[in-house]
Write a structure and sequence with these properties.
This protein is of the alpha/beta class and 253 residues long. 45% of the residues lie in helices and 12% in strands. It has a domain of 158 residues: Ribonuclease H-like superfamily/Ribonuclease H (Nucleotidyltransferase, domain 5), CATH 3.30.420.10. A hairpin with an 8-residue loop joins β1 and β2.
């Protein structure tokens, strides 16, 4: 018969959380507010933009960033880190953000560029491009844990997408846009299950990589991808019927 102390130890072990689960529990305890926005407004800023990226850890496709300037006169209720929201809720909030924000913009850096400059610099490039696309332009930036090559005053905030309403809004727009892209690519590469895992390192995705190798849109510099090479002629269909030059009429649709 097991002693009480042994049973207690076993119970404690069963409750031990993985690092990712522990982080998720921490994030759920944090409050998303306008604290940082109010500080910027108090210093004289009028157009405060939150900036965030999504897809940094994915094995497939682009990294997507968004920048959002919230309207101080309109509160979008329910803003929080996009990872903590159900997909249906993200869609609803994204629509409200686009409708009521002073300005918003989305930008992306593709897998080829990620392989060239690494995911850190690609994420910064996507975030900077999103900031540059804002109209009107921001005069102060709140950035999720990074400092960007932008002229505006900026504050990098650890766990910014959980603490700042503006960064959370940017996180939601970036997540919704990237998820849409992954669903579109799922129709092109159905064997990989992109619509379900969005390119991340799930068992299903890793199994598909072992069986089929990577597509041309996988990030070739990421270890789970380059460890499973496949002759690229398997995807030669992507180059079929593509002319060497594209006319302005073709671009216009």
């Amino acid at each position: 018969m097991k002693s009480s102390s042994t049973r207690t130890l076993g119970l404690a072990s069963s409750r031990t959380l993985s690092p990712s689960a522990a982080k998720l529990r921490l994030l759920k305890k944090l409050r998303c507010t306008l604290r940082y926005e109010k500080q910027a407004w108090a210093m004289g800023a009028q157009l405060v933009a939150g900036v965030d990226e999504v897809g940094r850890g994915s094995l497939f496709g682009c990294v997507v960033a968004a920048a959002v300037i919230l309207d101080p006169a309109y509160r979008v209720r329910g803003l929080r880190d996009s990872k903590l929201l159900l997909p249906e809720r993200r869609e609803v909030l994204a629509e409200r953000i686009r409708e009521h924000a002073v300005a918003w913009a989305v930008a992306a850096v593709d897998a080829a560029r990620i392989d060239q400059i690494n995911i850190y610099h690609a994420s910064r490039a996507a975030m900077r491009e999103a900031v540059l696309r804002l109209a009107p332009a921001a005069d102060h930036l709140l950035v999720d844990a990074m400092r960007l090559d932008c002229q505006q005053p900026q504050i990098p905030i650890i766990h910014g997408d959980t603490l700042s309403a503006s960064i959370a809004a940017a996180s939601i727009l970036a997540k919704v846009e990237r998820d849409r892209m992954m669903c579109d690519w799922d129709a092109v590469f159905p064997a990989y299950g992109l619509a379900s895992h969005k390119g991340y390192s799930t068992p299903k995705h890793l199994a598909a990589l072992r069986e089929f190798g990577p597509t041309p849109l996988h990030r070739q510099s990421f270890a789970p991808v380059w460890q499973n090479p496949v002759p690229q002629e398997a995807f030669a269909f992507m180059d079929e019927n593509v002319p060497d030059e594209v006319s302005p009429e073709d671009l216009a649709g």
